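pls ignore typos typing on phone
adenosine-5'-diphosphate + seq
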Amino acid sequence: MSTLAPLVLPPKPRGRWKPWLGLAIVLLITAVTLSPQWGIAFSFDAIARNWQNGADKVLALLQPDWTFFPRTIPPLVETLQMAVIATFVGAVVSLPLSLWAARLTNPNRYTRGALKTLLNAVRSIPDLLYASVLVAMVGVGALPGIIALVLFNVGIIVKMVSESIEVNDAGPLEAGRAAGGTQLQINRAIALTDAWPAFVNQTLYVLELNVRASTVLGLVGAGGLGLLIDAVRTFYRYDQLSLIILEILVVVVVIDAVSAAIRRRLV
Amino acid sequence: MTDLHDSAAAGVHTSAAAPWSIRMRDVSVRYPNGVVALKGVSLDIEAGEMVSVVGLSGSGKSSLIRTINGLVPISSGTLEVGGRHLETARGRELRQLRGEIGMIFQGFNLARRASVLNNVLVGRLAHTPTWRTLLGLYRAGDVRIAYEALNSVGILAKAYDRASTLSGGQQQRVAIARALAQQPKLVLADEPVASLDPPTAHGVMRDLRRINQELGITVLTNLHLLDLARTYGTRLIGLRAGEVVYDGPAATASDAVFETIYGRSIQHEDVLG
Ligand SMILES: Nc1ncnc2c1ncn2[C@@H]1O[C@H](COP(=O)(O)OP(=O)(O)O)[C@@H](O)[C@H]1O
Ligand SMILES: [Mg+2]
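k done
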């Protein structure tokens, strides 16, 4: 160290959150939520008062009614069909929209912004709400369920895949531009191959979500196992309900294994 | 390291189209953030020349090369490439111009998950209707051109491998094949060997020289190593702070010349060896 010239520091980047600030905000929100004045109303007494009631139900749930099995098959199959069809349609619609929603693959900020706004709106509405409105529009059955799931899927896949495209390397796309390709050609020939793993992963993930979601959609009349769940629940048949839950569990596990196999082949 | 396999390389260019010249008049480039990367650059590069552009990092080499295919818009001045005005070209016209200009990047810029062949076929985009690209239906003739380009850089055997599985030197050869598949009138290379080890770097530089000598294509290469610039270029252009400070023959450019370009004495990082 010979001379100690005063250091001229560059201006610090602004607009970035400090880690401790983020932590403080999370703690603050948690405190407010739990506080008696402003927070959500809940108490532990309710659990203590109703424990007997709850214990009976748990006992019933632990004894599935196996004779109920044949009656669950058609709605289970319908649920699976809804999930698979909705995943397929959702994926096909989402692939071009994902490229449209990412800056790297759609430099036009106006069309991109319009699509993103639309998708935010689509995503902000819960699938159950879509289903109940659609049941009113097109009637009880699998169709409103499928449409609700497709909207739900497009919202998720496009968001996740377009965000993964944004962090991909821009270099290969630039090479396509330098070779005289149109944006559409570049997206198809170059961006798509890089986006493919994210797309396959998200699609397989929504397939799993759809199996679970489609069981719930039946509660509002949108077909599948949900209709049956609604029926047995109304008659307090927790033994039958537990069989249905077991079946859903098995299906989810099987789908998980199948997606792992598909992922290995496609990615 | 294999060099260009002469006959195959010639086969890529049976069209034997005339190479392009470059005329820059008073070209300035100012980026949106206010940085002026080129200040009134005027250059005449004749068809078939092999030019090295040297300068320190930040001197404007990339900006210069990227204005020549319109990746960076020029703020003032005029730029003719192959007799066509690039500064006013838009849309389809600009894409067609770019289609005639091959570009090679420091980072190779390959689609990593795509096959080597599909990467080379990117060089045919400007000659392929969009619907064909969307359906992945390349013309047989274009696929043939891609195979020949790969053969000419000696990596035809890797055609079906994923680009990311190749070594750096092989990836840069794929990128050269992609440029060759364009059947270019002009090749621009932006620090093509800066990410490669010395023997591989010489191999890639020899490929570029043979593209120039055997196919007659005009080649403009950015380099920051003075021995590479001397060995492989016939003409040397020195850039400093966005201005041309030297323009003359490469082989005889003395260390003093490089010291003027760099504005400092020569150090051992300035040569590859
Ligand atoms: N896209 C860009 N936006 C703003 N400034 C840039 C951009 N690209 C380069 N520059 C600036 O322009 C100057 C010249 O850069 P460049 O042409 O990349 O030089 P070189 O290739 O010789 O290193 C540098 O000051 C650099 O920071
Ligand atoms: Mg550079």
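Residues 59-266 of chain A form a domain with the MetI-like fold fold (CATH 1.10.3720.10). The CA atoms of residues 23 and 29 of chain A lie 10 Å apart. more later
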